[in-house]
Write a structure and sequence with these properties.
- The longest helix is centred in the first third of the chain and has 12 residues, at 33-44.
- The chain has one helix and eleven strands, in the order E-E-H-E-E-E-E-E-E-E-E-E.
- The chain is elongated and about 55 Å long.
- Strands 2-1-3 form a three-stranded antiparallel beta sheet, covered by helices on one side. A two-stranded antiparallel ribbon has the order 4-5.
- Strand 10 (126-129) and strand 11 form a beta hairpin.
- The protein is mainly beta.
Protein backbone atom coordinates (compact mmCIF):
# COMPACT_ATOMS: atom_id res chain seq x y z
CA UNK A 1 0.00 0.00 0.00
CA UNK A 2 1.08 3.54 -0.71
CA UNK A 3 0.38 6.31 1.76
CA UNK A 4 -0.36 9.91 0.80
CA UNK A 5 -0.68 12.95 3.03
CA UNK A 6 -3.15 15.71 2.26
CA UNK A 7 -1.29 18.96 2.86
CA UNK A 8 -3.07 22.08 4.12
CA UNK A 9 -2.00 25.57 5.18
CA UNK A 10 1.57 25.95 6.46
CA UNK A 11 2.37 22.35 5.52
CA UNK A 12 -0.08 20.82 8.02
CA UNK A 13 -1.01 17.21 7.34
CA UNK A 14 -4.80 17.25 7.45
CA UNK A 15 -5.53 13.71 6.21
CA UNK A 16 -3.74 10.53 5.25
CA UNK A 17 -4.98 8.17 2.53
CA UNK A 18 -3.75 4.80 1.34
CA UNK A 19 -3.77 3.61 -2.24
CA UNK A 20 -3.06 0.24 -3.76
CA UNK A 21 0.45 0.34 -5.24
CA UNK A 22 -0.96 -0.63 -8.64
CA UNK A 23 -2.75 2.74 -8.83
CA UNK A 24 0.67 4.42 -8.99
CA UNK A 25 2.05 2.36 -11.88
CA UNK A 26 2.61 3.94 -15.27
CA UNK A 27 2.31 2.05 -18.56
CA UNK A 28 5.78 0.53 -17.95
CA UNK A 29 4.87 -0.70 -14.47
CA UNK A 30 6.96 1.98 -12.75
CA UNK A 31 5.53 3.44 -9.55
CA UNK A 32 5.18 7.24 -9.75
CA UNK A 33 4.06 9.66 -7.07
CA UNK A 34 2.51 12.07 -9.58
CA UNK A 35 0.06 9.38 -10.71
CA UNK A 36 -1.12 8.96 -7.11
CA UNK A 37 -1.43 12.72 -6.70
CA UNK A 38 -3.49 12.98 -9.91
CA UNK A 39 -5.73 10.10 -8.77
CA UNK A 40 -6.38 11.66 -5.35
CA UNK A 41 -6.90 15.14 -6.83
CA UNK A 42 -9.60 13.81 -9.17
CA UNK A 43 -11.15 11.75 -6.37
CA UNK A 44 -11.18 14.46 -3.68
CA UNK A 45 -10.87 17.79 -5.45
CA UNK A 46 -7.78 18.56 -3.31
CA UNK A 47 -4.54 19.09 -5.22
CA UNK A 48 -1.79 19.09 -2.60
CA UNK A 49 -0.69 15.55 -1.73
CA UNK A 50 2.71 14.11 -0.85
CA UNK A 51 3.62 10.44 -0.78
CA UNK A 52 4.95 9.04 2.47
CA UNK A 53 6.37 5.69 3.57
CA UNK A 54 4.99 3.45 6.31
CA UNK A 55 8.44 1.93 6.64
CA UNK A 56 10.54 5.10 6.97
CA UNK A 57 11.24 6.43 10.46
CA UNK A 58 14.02 8.73 11.68
CA UNK A 59 15.32 8.92 8.10
CA UNK A 60 15.84 5.14 7.88
CA UNK A 61 13.86 2.67 5.78
CA UNK A 62 12.99 -0.57 7.56
CA UNK A 63 11.88 -3.96 6.30
CA UNK A 64 8.05 -4.15 6.45
CA UNK A 65 6.71 -4.93 9.95
CA UNK A 66 10.25 -5.04 11.31
CA UNK A 67 12.89 -3.07 13.18
CA UNK A 68 15.50 -4.29 10.69
CA UNK A 69 16.88 -1.53 8.46
CA UNK A 70 16.45 -2.30 4.75
CA UNK A 71 19.55 -3.11 2.76
CA UNK A 72 18.32 -0.59 0.16
CA UNK A 73 18.23 2.79 1.91
CA UNK A 74 17.25 4.50 -1.36
CA UNK A 75 13.70 3.52 -0.31
CA UNK A 76 13.92 5.95 2.64
CA UNK A 77 12.21 9.17 1.77
CA UNK A 78 10.73 12.15 3.53
CA UNK A 79 12.34 11.10 6.84
CA UNK A 80 9.17 9.85 8.60
CA UNK A 81 5.71 8.49 8.05
CA UNK A 82 3.14 11.25 7.63
CA UNK A 83 0.59 11.65 10.42
CA UNK A 84 -2.46 13.86 10.81
CA UNK A 85 -1.49 16.91 12.84
CA UNK A 86 2.12 16.72 11.73
CA UNK A 87 3.69 18.85 9.04
CA UNK A 88 5.34 18.48 5.69
CA UNK A 89 8.47 20.66 5.55
CA UNK A 90 9.05 21.48 1.90
CA UNK A 91 12.61 22.79 2.44
CA UNK A 92 13.66 19.53 4.12
CA UNK A 93 11.31 17.39 1.98
CA UNK A 94 10.36 15.71 5.25
CA UNK A 95 7.38 14.81 7.39
CA UNK A 96 7.64 15.95 11.01
CA UNK A 97 5.36 14.72 13.80
CA UNK A 98 3.72 17.27 16.11
CA UNK A 99 5.99 18.66 18.82
CA UNK A 100 4.87 17.06 22.08
CA UNK A 101 6.98 19.03 24.58
CA UNK A 102 7.98 22.70 24.43
CA UNK A 103 11.58 21.96 25.45
CA UNK A 104 12.25 19.39 22.74
CA UNK A 105 14.32 20.31 19.70
CA UNK A 106 14.18 19.07 16.13
CA UNK A 107 16.97 16.74 15.06
CA UNK A 108 17.85 18.16 11.65
CA UNK A 109 19.10 14.80 10.36
CA UNK A 110 16.14 12.61 11.36
CA UNK A 111 13.43 15.30 11.59
CA UNK A 112 12.35 13.83 14.93
CA UNK A 113 11.76 15.85 18.11
CA UNK A 114 14.26 15.01 20.85
CA UNK A 115 14.46 15.79 24.55
CA UNK A 116 17.17 18.25 25.60
CA UNK A 117 18.85 15.40 27.51
CA UNK A 118 19.24 11.86 26.12
CA UNK A 119 16.94 9.03 27.14
CA UNK A 120 18.66 6.86 29.81
CA UNK A 121 20.42 3.84 28.37
CA UNK A 122 19.96 1.48 31.33
CA UNK A 123 17.06 -0.39 29.71
CA UNK A 124 14.48 0.82 32.24
CA UNK A 125 11.23 2.60 31.23
CA UNK A 126 11.15 6.37 31.61
CA UNK A 127 8.71 9.19 30.96
CA UNK A 128 9.68 12.76 30.16
CA UNK A 129 8.94 15.31 32.91
CA UNK A 130 8.59 18.65 31.14
CA UNK A 131 8.38 20.66 34.38
CA UNK A 132 11.68 19.38 35.77
CA UNK A 133 13.27 18.68 32.37
CA UNK A 134 14.15 15.12 33.47
CA UNK A 135 13.44 11.52 32.57
CA UNK A 136 11.40 10.00 35.43
CA UNK A 137 11.59 6.26 36.05
CA UNK A 138 8.21 4.59 35.58
CA UNK A 139 7.03 2.24 38.30
CA UNK A 140 5.68 -0.79 36.49
CA UNK A 141 4.36 -3.63 38.63
CA UNK A 142 5.53 -7.08 37.58
Amino acid sequence: MAIFAKIGMNGKVIDVQTLANEVLHDSNGVEREDIGVDFLTKLTGWAIWKQSSYNTHDGIHYEPDSLTPSSDQSKAFRKNTACVGGTYDEDRDAFIAPKIHASWVLNETTCVWEAPIPYPSDGKPYQWNETDQTWDLLNIDS
